[in-house]
């Protein structure tokens, strides 16, 4: 019970609930004001305008939010006018529905924010079917009142943002830390749960994508605000927390360990990994608590458990050496030492967040130059050319627009010829659940139907118990606000609450509410069926056929990241920005690839062509970026020796192998060969450096010098990590090239 109350308290303070309150306020104001002045008949179109403007109110820079809302208002007014003027003429209405459905759904090519504007435009089209306006004056008044509603919502949104200007940022930071805490705990499980690694790795793909999405929005919000208004103390704190979250994410990525080697080294001695696992879990819990404190006042958790876990993990290294004995224990000890160093770096970042959140005065400041900060922003291209380039069957969004239009027109004609009373409910269901991918459409259809049935049962039960119209009004209003708050988090619950709200609104208008409940469920089922069938049979867009572009980008960004890491190794100061930007681009590329793979798993089994091969490519690419991040992370946090020419030779070899994979996908086949003898010599020299340092350490132990100094330890760590990771990267790149050749030979010729 206590946990449920805690979660409910967090929900009430989330920015999603805040946006629900904004919507509720925007709806309540015209109802109260116009009822008081005796012009309640003007309230419904204003409320519709409020509702249609709400979707574009998402986290981001205030400028983009205002621009999106204004475009949203203009679009919904235009669409409403087109449909209302066309309604008396069936053929003209059919043309209008076809035109609006196709071109507005195609607007989604401009990104997530544009897709929400597109959604509002399509909603305006559907809701226009519920409006009975005949004369020119009636239609224009209705359209103008929708515009008034949109402007009212924009005003309410700006006022709320002025009252709580940092709520969106705090929510995004909180969500990011919460996801990272889950990712950290998942990484701990990977160390010892050998039988569950494939399942855990697939879960990690989802988490990586979610973290990257949150961090992309945070970059836009924090960096854009900083460029516009300069630096404030509060914004400085937010940016510091964000940078620490990025560093933590990179550190976790950097420890995508060679688990086969871990299994080989520790074998039956996995108990020596338990301290590292426990430390990870404690840090994960700590991040979770910090994420909650960002949106809800609370006490910063005590750091004693963190420090105790650190001590235990460090002591375990000595226990392992004493149990196994040197020199046999050296490789395992270095693995544990590298793991402990990585976790110590994680701990420093977490403690940095703690210091920021406890208002410690001497926290470091961010010195990112304005001209540099713009390089971290991913800008959306809004030129007309982007839309024109999408006008082909090769475009996923074009096929979706065609499919969606046919589904909408079919549903409209179905309602017309069979005289279905509320056809727009079927159309509304299609608009809400139909997505470019089959898997997401099917999932949303299922959630929509289940949610609608649950909502209908609840509403039916309440209607049986009481006929109190005041209670109906309160429940309709509250359930609508909560439904809008939950729509991004829990679509099934949102659908249930939305059904409750709609049923009670209709119960206030029509005496036979049971008939409303019945038809609501039936129409939802019809709309969901049309959406799923259309996605399966009409210009289907199976993810296995759409991976080429995503794969190409991931390979190119990995290659760029590797080369930037080499430059960073050569000169940390000069090439720091180059490395950070390349890291960000590589993480985004692998996140997009992981998201594409996740969509593939939602497609029907029969359409998951060469699933195992694609999974292998995704996993190899993921492992490569982690191995590169591990090298970059070591360079960043340690004093390193000068870059050897052997390292450069191996980087060139790996880069060339990646280029061969890219050439295969692009059908260019421009092979640039590096002599295998040169690569083998470079590998041998790097391994020899480690063996030389290792032998020197053995000699010192024999002489009684059992205590190792920091320089020797760091030298051993560097030689061991560089030698092993470069060999690992060579093997990974070769396997990736082979898998890419198989992918090209088996999948691409079919297209």
> What's the story with the biggest beta sheet?
none
> Using DSSP, what is the number of strands?
0
What gyration radius follows from the Cα positions, in whole Å? 29 Å
How many helical elements?
28
Q: Report strand %.
A: under 5%
Order of helices and strands: HHHHHHHHHHHHHHHHHHHHHHHHHHHH
What is CATH's topology name of the largest domain? Methane Monooxygenase Hydroxylase, Chain G, domain 1
How many angstroms does the end-to-end distance come to?
55 Å
**Second CATH tier, the architecture of the largest domain:** Up-down Bundle
Count of separate structural domains: 4
Specify the CATH homologous superfamily of the largest domain.
Answer: Phosphate transport system protein phou homolog 2, domain 2
Dominant shape = elongated
Identify the CATH class of the largest domain.
Mainly Alpha
Main structural class: mainly alpha
Parts with pLDDT < 50 across at least 5 consecutive residues? 360-377
């Amino acid at each position: 019970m206590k946990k449920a109350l805690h979660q409910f308290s967090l929900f009430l303070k989330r920015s999603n609930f805040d946006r629900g309150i904004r919507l509720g306020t925007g709806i309540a104001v015209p109802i109260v004001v116009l009822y008081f002045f005796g012009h309640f008949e003007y309230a419904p179109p204003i409320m519709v305008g409020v509702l249609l403007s709400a979707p574009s109110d998402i986290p981001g820079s205030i400028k983009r939010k205002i621009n999106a809302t204004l475009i949203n208002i203009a679009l919904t007014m235009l669409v409403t006018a087109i449909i209302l003027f066309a309604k008396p003429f069936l053929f003209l209405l059919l043309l209008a529905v076809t035109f609006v459905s196709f071109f507005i759904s195609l607007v989604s090519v401009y990104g997530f924010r544009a897709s929400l504007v597109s959604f509002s435009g399509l909603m305006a089209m559907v809701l226009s079917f519920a409006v009975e306006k005949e004369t020119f004056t009636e239609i224009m008044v209705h359209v103008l009142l929708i515009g008034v509603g949109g402007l009212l919502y924009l005003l309410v949104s700006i006022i709320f943002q002025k009252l709580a200007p940092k709520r969106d940022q705090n929510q995004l930071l909180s969500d990011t830390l919460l996801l990272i805490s889950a990712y950290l705990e998942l990484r701990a499980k990977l160390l010892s749960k050998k039988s569950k690694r494939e399942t855990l790795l697939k879960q990690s793909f989802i988490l990586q994508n979610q973290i990257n999405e949150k961090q992309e929005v945070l970059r836009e919000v924090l960096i854009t605000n900083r460029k516009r208004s300069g630096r404030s103390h509060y914004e400085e704190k937010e940016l510091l927390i964000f940078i620490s979250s990025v560093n933590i994410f990179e550190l976790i990525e950097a420890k995508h360990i060679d688990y086969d080697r871990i299994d080989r080294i520790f074998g039956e001695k996995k108990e020596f990994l338990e301290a590292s696992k426990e430390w990870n879990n404690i840090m994960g819990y700590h991040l979770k608590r910090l994420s909650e404190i960002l949106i809800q006042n609370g006490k910063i958790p005590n750091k004693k458990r963190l420090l105790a876990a650190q001590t235990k993990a460090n002591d375990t290294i000595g226990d392992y050496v004493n149990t196994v004995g040197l020199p046999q224990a050296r490789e395992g000890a270095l693995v544990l030492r590298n793991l402990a160093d990585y976790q110590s770096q994680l701990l420093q970042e977490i403690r940095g967040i703690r210091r920021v959140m406890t208002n410690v005065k001497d926290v470091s400041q961010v010195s990112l130059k304005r001209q540099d900060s713009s390089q971290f922003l991913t800008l959306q291209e809004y030129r007309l050319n982007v839309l024109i380039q999408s006008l082909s069957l090769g475009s996923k969004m074009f096929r979706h627009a065609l499919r969606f239009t046919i589904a909408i027109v079919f549903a409209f004609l179905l309602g017309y010829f069979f005289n279905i009373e509320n056809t727009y409910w079927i159309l509304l269901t299609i608009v809400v659940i139909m997505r470019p991918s089959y898997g997401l459409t099917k999932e949303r259809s299922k959630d929509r139907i289940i949610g609608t049935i649950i909502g209908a049962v609840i509403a039916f039960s309440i209607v049986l118990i009481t006929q109190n119209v005041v209670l109906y009004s309160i429940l309709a209003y509250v359930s609508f606000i909560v439904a809008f708050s939950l729509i991004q988090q829990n679509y099934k619950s949102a659908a249930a609450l939305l059904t409750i709200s709609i049923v009670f609104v209709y119960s206030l208008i029509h005496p036979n509410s049971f008939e409303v409940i019945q038809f609501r469920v039936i129409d939802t089922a019809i709309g969901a069926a049309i959406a799923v069938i259309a996605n399966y049979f009409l210009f289907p867009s199976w993810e296995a056929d759409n991976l080429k572009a995503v794969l190409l980008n991931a390979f190119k960004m990995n290659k760029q990241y590797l080369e930037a890491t080499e430059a960073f190794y050569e000169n940390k100061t000069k090439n720091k920005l180059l490395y950070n930007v390349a890291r960000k681009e590589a993480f985004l590329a692998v996140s997009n690839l992981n998201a594409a793979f996740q969509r593939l798993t939602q497609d029907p089994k029969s359409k998951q062509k060469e699933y195992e091969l694609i999974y292998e490519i995704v996993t190899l690419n993921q492992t490569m970026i982690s191995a590169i991040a591990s090298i970059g992370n070591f360079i960043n946090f340690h004093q390193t020796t000068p870059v050897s020419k052997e390292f450069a030779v191996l980087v060139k070899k790996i880069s060339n192998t990646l280029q061969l994979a890219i050439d295969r996908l692009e059908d260019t086949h421009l092979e640039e060969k590096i002599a295998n003898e040169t690569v083998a010599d470079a590998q041998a020299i790097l391994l020899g450096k480690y063996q030389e340092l290792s032998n020197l350490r053995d000699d010192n132990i024999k002489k009684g010098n059992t205590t190792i100094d920091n320089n020797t330890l760091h030298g051993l760590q560097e030689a061991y990590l560089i030698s092993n990771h470069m060999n690992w990267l060579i093997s990974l790149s070769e396997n990736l090239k082979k898998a890419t050749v198989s992918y090209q030979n088996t999948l691409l010729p079919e297209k």
